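User: Here's a chain of 112 residues. Predict its fold as C-alpha coordinates.
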Amino acid sequence: MVSEHQIIALVERFEHKLKLLTRAYTDTQKQVEQLELENSALQESLRKEQELVRQLRKKPVIPEKNTPKSKDVGIIVKDNLSETDTNAELKQQLDEYIRELERCIAHLSSLS
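Assistant: Prediction complete.
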Protein backbone atom coordinates (compact mmCIF):
# COMPACT_ATOMS: atom_id res chain seq x y z
CA MET A 1 0.00 0.00 0.00
CA VAL A 2 1.11 3.53 -0.78
CA SER A 3 1.75 5.78 2.17
CA GLU A 4 0.51 9.30 2.53
CA HIS A 5 4.11 10.56 2.32
CA GLN A 6 4.61 8.80 -1.04
CA ILE A 7 1.36 10.25 -2.37
CA ILE A 8 2.45 13.76 -1.34
CA ALA A 9 5.83 13.23 -3.03
CA LEU A 10 4.11 12.05 -6.23
CA VAL A 11 1.76 15.06 -6.19
CA GLU A 12 4.70 17.43 -5.66
CA ARG A 13 6.61 15.87 -8.58
CA PHE A 14 3.48 16.11 -10.71
CA GLU A 15 3.06 19.80 -9.77
CA HIS A 16 6.74 20.46 -10.54
CA LYS A 17 6.44 18.79 -13.97
CA LEU A 18 3.23 20.71 -14.62
CA LYS A 19 5.00 24.01 -13.84
CA LEU A 20 7.86 23.07 -16.19
CA LEU A 21 5.41 22.19 -18.95
CA THR A 22 3.49 25.42 -18.39
CA ARG A 23 6.71 27.46 -18.67
CA ALA A 24 7.75 25.55 -21.78
CA TYR A 25 4.31 26.16 -23.29
CA THR A 26 4.48 29.88 -22.48
CA ASP A 27 7.99 30.16 -23.95
CA THR A 28 6.87 28.31 -27.06
CA GLN A 29 3.86 30.59 -27.44
CA LYS A 30 6.16 33.64 -27.25
CA GLN A 31 8.43 32.12 -29.89
CA VAL A 32 5.43 31.45 -32.13
CA GLU A 33 4.29 35.07 -31.75
CA GLN A 34 7.78 36.35 -32.57
CA LEU A 35 8.02 34.06 -35.59
CA GLU A 36 4.59 35.17 -36.79
CA LEU A 37 5.67 38.83 -36.52
CA GLU A 38 8.90 38.07 -38.38
CA ASN A 39 6.93 36.13 -41.00
CA SER A 40 4.55 39.06 -41.47
CA ALA A 41 7.46 41.46 -41.88
CA LEU A 42 9.13 39.14 -44.39
CA GLN A 43 5.87 38.68 -46.30
CA GLU A 44 5.50 42.47 -46.52
CA SER A 45 9.09 42.82 -47.69
CA LEU A 46 8.52 40.10 -50.29
CA ARG A 47 5.35 41.83 -51.48
CA LYS A 48 7.26 45.11 -51.91
CA GLU A 49 10.07 43.38 -53.79
CA GLN A 50 7.60 41.61 -56.07
CA GLU A 51 5.86 44.91 -56.77
CA LEU A 52 9.21 46.47 -57.62
CA VAL A 53 9.96 43.59 -59.99
CA ARG A 54 6.56 44.06 -61.67
CA GLN A 55 7.22 47.77 -62.09
CA LEU A 56 10.68 47.15 -63.52
CA ARG A 57 9.28 44.61 -65.98
CA LYS A 58 6.69 47.13 -67.15
CA LYS A 59 9.36 49.79 -67.70
CA PRO A 60 10.22 50.04 -71.39
CA VAL A 61 13.65 48.86 -72.34
CA ILE A 62 15.58 51.69 -73.90
CA PRO A 63 18.23 50.40 -76.28
CA GLU A 64 21.71 51.72 -75.77
CA LYS A 65 22.20 54.79 -77.90
CA ASN A 66 25.29 55.33 -79.97
CA THR A 67 26.92 58.15 -78.13
CA PRO A 68 28.87 60.67 -80.14
CA LYS A 69 32.58 60.33 -79.62
CA SER A 70 33.95 63.21 -77.64
CA LYS A 71 36.98 65.22 -78.67
CA ASP A 72 38.19 64.80 -75.09
CA VAL A 73 38.68 61.03 -75.54
CA GLY A 74 41.55 61.65 -77.94
CA ILE A 75 43.16 64.07 -75.54
CA ILE A 76 42.85 61.62 -72.64
CA VAL A 77 44.33 58.78 -74.66
CA LYS A 78 47.12 60.99 -76.03
CA ASP A 79 48.05 62.08 -72.50
CA ASN A 80 48.14 58.49 -71.23
CA LEU A 81 50.31 57.03 -74.00
CA SER A 82 54.02 57.37 -74.33
CA GLU A 83 55.60 58.62 -77.54
CA THR A 84 56.85 55.13 -78.43
CA ASP A 85 53.35 53.58 -78.65
CA THR A 86 52.32 52.51 -82.12
CA ASN A 87 49.10 53.42 -83.89
CA ALA A 88 47.78 49.88 -83.35
CA GLU A 89 48.36 50.15 -79.60
CA LEU A 90 46.73 53.56 -79.62
CA LYS A 91 43.70 52.20 -81.45
CA GLN A 92 43.47 49.20 -79.11
CA GLN A 93 43.63 51.37 -75.99
CA LEU A 94 41.11 53.81 -77.47
CA ASP A 95 38.75 50.91 -78.20
CA GLU A 96 39.12 49.71 -74.60
CA TYR A 97 38.28 53.20 -73.30
CA ILE A 98 35.22 53.37 -75.55
CA ARG A 99 34.00 49.93 -74.41
CA GLU A 100 34.46 50.92 -70.78
CA LEU A 101 32.53 54.16 -71.35
CA GLU A 102 29.73 52.24 -73.07
CA ARG A 103 29.55 49.82 -70.11
CA CYS A 104 29.34 52.77 -67.71
CA ILE A 105 26.60 54.40 -69.77
CA ALA A 106 24.64 51.15 -69.96
CA HIS A 107 24.96 50.68 -66.22
CA LEU A 108 23.81 54.24 -65.53
CA SER A 109 20.89 53.79 -67.94
CA SER A 110 19.78 50.67 -66.11
CA LEU A 111 19.72 52.55 -62.80
CA SER A 112 17.26 55.20 -63.94
